[in-house]
Amino acid sequence: MPDAFDLLILGSGSTAFAAAIGASELGARVAMVERRTLGGTCVNRGCLPSKNLIEAARLVRDAAHPRYDGLVPAQLVVDFPALIGQKDQVVRDYRAKKYNAVADGMSDLQILDGSAAFDSPTSVSLDGRTIAADRFLVATGSRPIVPKIPGLDSVPYLTSDLLDADEAGRLTDLPESLIVLGGGYIAVELAQMFSRLGSRVTIVARSGLLRGYEPELGATLSEVFAAEGIEVLANTRTDGVSGNSQGVAVTVETPTAGRILRAQRLLAATGRRPNTDDLGLDQIGVELDADGYVVVDAELRTKVAHVWAAGDVIGGQHGSQMATPVGARQGRIVAENAFKGARRRVDHEVIPRAIFTDPPIGVVGLTEAEVKAKHFPAVSATTPLKYVPRAGAIHRPEGFVKMIASTIDERILGVHMIGESAAEVIHEAAMAMHFKATIDDFIDLIHVYPTMSEALKIGAQAFRKDVTKLSCCAE
Amino acid sequence: MDQSIVFIDLGVGGMTCDGCVVHVTKALEAVPGVANATVDLASRSAVVTANPGVATEALAAAVHATGQYNAFERRRRPASNA
Ligand SMILES: Cc1cc2nc3c(=O)[nH]c(=O)nc-3n(C[C@H](O)[C@H](O)[C@H](O)COP(=O)(O)OP(=O)(O)OC[C@H]3O[C@@H](n4cnc5c(N)ncnc54)[C@H](O)[C@@H]3O)c2cc1C
Description:
The complex is a heterodimer. Chain A is an alpha/beta fold. Chain A has helices spanning 14-25, 40-45, 47-64, 80-104, 185-197, 215-228, 324-339, 368-373, 389-393, 422-434, 439-444, 454-461, and strands spanning 5-10, 30-34, 109-113, 116-120, 123-126, 129-138, 142-144, 177-181, 200-204, 231-233, 237-244, 247-253, 258-263, 265-268, 272-274, 307-309, 353-355, 361-365, 378-384, 400-406, 412-418. In chain A, strands 1, 2, 3, 4, 5, 6 and 16 form a seven-stranded mixed beta sheet that branches. Chain A starts with a strand and ends in a 14-residue tail after the last helix. The longest helix of chain B is centred in the first third of the chain and has 12 residues, at 18-29. Chain B has a single domain, classed as Alpha-Beta Plaits. Chain B has helices at 18-29, 56-64, and strands at residues 6-13, 34-40, 45-50, 70-78. In chain B, strands 2-3-1-4 form a four-stranded antiparallel beta sheet, covered by helices on one side. At the A-B interface, loops of A face β1, α2 and β4 of B. Flavin-adenine dinucleotide (FAD) binds next to α1, β2, α2, α3 and α7 of chain A.
């Protein structure tokens, strides 16, 4: 029997890769098990393909709505299969460079294909084989929830897996019309993308758009969507689904009336759940919470001392978020805790996030509701982006930045922005918060003129004065 | 057979050349209770011959103190099984 691996990682996503690289640098012999495609969700059917297609959809939209008098709208022809073809190529290239080649370059890493489940505390079974290891990392990620809607099991429907480059669930034809179930970030990104590429899109959301985020973000996005011709049915219950490969009918109950919606395709984007059902974790004593997430301590250790978990599979514990760079950071921490005795704890105080709608959204830190729930004494200031010189100069005045500051020491506790370049601008706020910046730190920093980052300087000034009266360069 | 001797298998990270092997060997052999250490670059591992009282943490700390390398314990074997 071959020697046991020092570390066996279940999964091969960004969390797994960060852990594998870290552990290997520390001298460990590592194996990684994958049952779908190497690289996991982000590269194959998540961040990368969605951001690729969203940008293409923006080009189509901008050509048809150029914002400037003197630029004549143009109709770009969308060759959807070709668009999907280039997306698949981007995914395959990126996967080859950032995952396969990296794995090939690590002499002490073995990639094993198949579906793994624990058969003892020190081994997993993998398609009939037993693989032993001294330590384990559960990094099996998450998958789309199948919502409990009568009739859904007998109707063809899409999930975000439609983005995949190589699997059966991938989408290659543009739906003429699409009903999107869900109002979270994946739902709104994909809804706008399909709408801009030419589908007639209806969103059905149980509450409003982007529940859990600062409420004004979802409200602003709803206005943008309405203006773009996306129908948003908020506070709407879905009662049933019927249909076939030609089309679907969805029975919904809006706050005012019952309706039957019809479309060619249905996309279920109502959230994600952890891949922990069939891992045999309970048999070896690893605890799961009520939603199936692996329970970990702040060092990412499970209830079993030599088993760690990280990434999407731990959900929101210890302030974590289900996002690629968060999982990758955690993977690195697991490697150091497992092989260096580092006892590092996760630090999730500052996690910048973006939602790649147009206008994009960038958020970091606490929402006003979270601040209230924690009884922090705080104030907020919301500044419309029309007061940011660049927004006016390039005809992109829509959106706002909302900053939340402590009234004890004026530290910035949260920044929530929707508008041009928000996904980039949010990093300044994140770095500032990392160094515990105050309102004055944002005001005193000279910002490049004219940039959207000035929104943060102006947004901070809004705590002190009427920003509608600022001169050039926000002074 | 001397009952008070064990072999301790270590994984060693960060070594890129023979010089590294020398550094890690010296670091391990300086730990009180260690008789000798055999460090292998290719397999990124070491076998330490020591008395059973030598703690894992002491070996890891000695290697960490070099500033460049990492070591962790794989297992301990009684010398009679060698
Ligand atoms: C449409 C979409 C868009 C997204 N956009 C963004 C974005 O813009 N930015 C961002 O930061 N995040 C984004 N995310 C989230 C991001 O993709 C995830 O947070 C991230 O991929 C999680 O990484 P992970 O390594 O924890 O898990 P995963 O990447 O899901 O990897 C887990 C792997 O484990 C494998 N696996 C599961 N069970 C087993 C088993 N028993 N045996 C063997 N293998 C197994 C799975 O097949 C999978 O490949 C997006 C997600 C989606 C779906």
